[in-house]
Each structure stands twice: as C-alpha cells, then as structure tokens.
Design goal:
Elements lengths: L3 H41 L5 H23 L2 H8 L2 H26 L3 H21 L7 H11 L3 E5 L3 H10 L5 E6 L3 E2 L6 E4 L3 H4 L5 E4 L13 H5 L6 E4 L8 H9 L4 E4 L19 E3 L10 H18 L13
Parallel strand pairs: 1-2, 1-5, 2-4, 5-6, 6-7, 7-8
Antiparallel strand pairs: 3-4
Helix pairs in contact: 2-4, 4-5
Length: 331
C-alpha cells in the first residue's frame, strides 16, 4: 500500500502556508478597511483639537502597551532598551515624528483636507520604497517594480477651451485626483475646479508638462489650426491628444506624422475632413481612435438641446443677447 501518512506529511506544510497567506490577506484587507474608517471617527471628535485627539490616543496606546507587556511578560526587554541611551533617543525621535504625523493628519481630516492628507499617506510608502532601493541597495522583484510603477503614475490633463463643456469635463475628472490645467483664449481667474485659467499664449510652456491634451475650443480664425505641428511637437512622448472640438482645430497632416512614429496617440470625435473618406490614412494610423462625431450623444442630449433652442429663440425674438456667443459682435 502507498505510504499515505508520508504523503500527508509532505502536503501539510503547503496547505498550512496557503492558510497563513489567506489569513494574512484577510487581515490586510481588514486593517485597511478600518484605516479607511478613521476619518469618520475623527470627524465625530471634531469639537476637540487635533492635539487633544492625538494626546488621548497616546495615553490609550500607553495603557494598552503596559497591559500587553505585562501579559506577555516582556518587561525584561523594556528594561534592556531603557538602559541603552542610543535606543532611547532613536525611539523618542520616532515617537515625536509619529505624533507630528498623526496630529497633521487629524487636523487635515477635521479641516476639510481629508483627500490631501490621504494622498500623503499614499505617497509615503512610495518614498520609503524608493529610499530602500537607492540608499539601502535593496532589490525589488519584477512584480514589485510593476506595482511601484503603476502606483507612481499620475495623469496631468490640459483642457484647451475652458467654457461650459470644458468646466464640465474638469468637474468630472477632479474626483479622480487628476491634475488639471485650463486654457482659454484669454487668461482669467479660476473657479471652484481650477485655480486659474491660462491664455493661449502660454501653451508653449504648458504643453511639455501634460500627459493628455483635450481640445474643446470653437472653430474661429484664432483656433483654426491651433494644434499644428509645433503644438504637437511640444507635447511629451507618449502623450494623448483628444479632439472633441472641430476637425480643423487639429492639423491632420501633423498628427499623422506624429502618430506614424508612435510618439503620440490620438482620440478623435471630429476630423478634418469630415466625414473621413474610406481610404483616409487616419483610419489605419497607429494609436489613433476615431469616433463618428458622437461625443455629445446621450439620453440627456435631446432635452438639453430643446431647452437651449427654446431659450435662444425667445431671446432672439425679444432682442436680448444670445447665450454662448463665441464669435461675432456679441463675443
């Protein structure tokens, strides 16, 4: 008969390891879930200052540590550490840094900066990993490098044409922690979505620093050919240009030259010419997605269109200024 007992003994360590990994994964998810609830708890204590909340946490932690050390009978180790002056100084410094960290975090949560504070906690382990590689000479596995790279990716979007549609786009991107820059024909103060609106004359300095450029301008003498060869050449390698404005705002020949080398990508809801002939090179250009001019299509399009048309006709009949004038005497 086969030695089932021996076979069982060889399988047991593997099964035990899998069980440990499974429990570790559950504990990890559980701890991060509880961590995510901390801001709600701190908001309930918002009548107290950040210093009071952190001081209370320090006292409770001290009591818990004393009980834990007593139960586990590790006071000898505590005495050994306290006898080491260097260890005491290092621990005291670490304690001050952790206290300052928690105080700043609690203050941020209770003063309307929860996202900013959470972003800091997101960036901190990335910095620790980078220091481990650079300073300590540690090596990360391929999977760890992939995870690190994905975590550090940030998207910077440049919106060229900051009218109502541009602002609506910015408002939808903002919750995803996208860094937004708005550009219009003339510079002006910002709003509750962007700090300021830049002018077209600043584009040469803005384009090299943005991963995605969205064209949302009307077609005027000023914007015709705005995204020309020089415009596209200023964009960084691997950047994406999105045209939902008018086809002639973007220089098609210049775009084909950039996409042919794979340096830039494009998403086009409008094209020049439009409609595209069946044999046009844009259909087969690498990294180019062409949509059939349906960027505004949706369930709410028709009622919005009817509402705006009724409003404009009413204004025209009354001799009142029309809405959304982008060219002509009323612009």
């Amino acid at each position: 008969m086969p030695n089932l007992q021996g076979r069982h003994e060889r399988i047991t360590p593997v099964a035990k390891r899998q069980d440990i990994d499974r429990r570790g994964l559950l504990f990890g998810f559980g701890s991060y879930f509880l961590w995510g609830l901390f801001p709600l708890y701190f908001r309930l204590l918002s009548r107290s200052s950040a210093f009071e909340i952190v001081a209370y946490r320090i006292v409770c932690s001290l009591v818990f540590c004393v009980l834990a050390i007593t139960v586990t009978r590790h006071w000898r180790g505590v005495k050994y550490v306290l006898a080491n002056r260097r260890a005491v100084v290092v621990l005291a410094g670490a304690g001050l840094l952790v206290s300052a960290n928690w105080t700043l975090y609690v203050w941020g949560v209770n003063n309307g900066h929860a996202i900013d504070a959470s972003l800091g906690y997101f960036i901190n382990p990335l910095m620790s990993a980078a220091l481990g590689v650079i300073v300590l000479g540690e090596r990360m596995r391929r999977a760890q490098w992939v995870a690190f790279g994905v975590s550090t990716v940030a998207v910077i979007v440049l919106i060229v044409g900051y009218g109502r549609i541009g602002r609506a786009l910015a408002a939808r991107l903002a919750p995803f922690e996208v860094s937004l820059t708005a550009v219009a024909s003339r510079p002006r103060a910002g709003d509750d979505v962007v700090e300021r609106v830049h002018g077209f004359d600043e584009l040469p300095w803005l384009l090299p620093h943005h991963d995605i450029v969205v064209l949302l301008t009307p077609l005027t003498d000023t914007t015709r050919g705005l995204a020309d060869a020089a415009f596209l050449a200023s964009m960084p390698d691997g950047a994406l240009v999105v045209n939902v404005a008018r086809g002639q705002v973007l220089d098609t020949a210049a775009l084909l030259a950039e996409t042919a080398t794979g340096r830039l990508r494009a998403a086009l809801d409008v094209t020049d010419p439009e409609p595209l002939p069946p044999d046009h090179p844009l259909w087969h250009a690498p990294g180019v997605l062409v949509a059939p001019h349906v960027g505004g299509a949706g369930d709410t399009f028709r009622p919005r269109m009817v509402r705006l048309l009724r409003e404009q006709l009413t204004r025209y009949a009354a001799g009142a200024p029309l809405l959304h004038v982008v060219a002509g005497p009323g612009a």
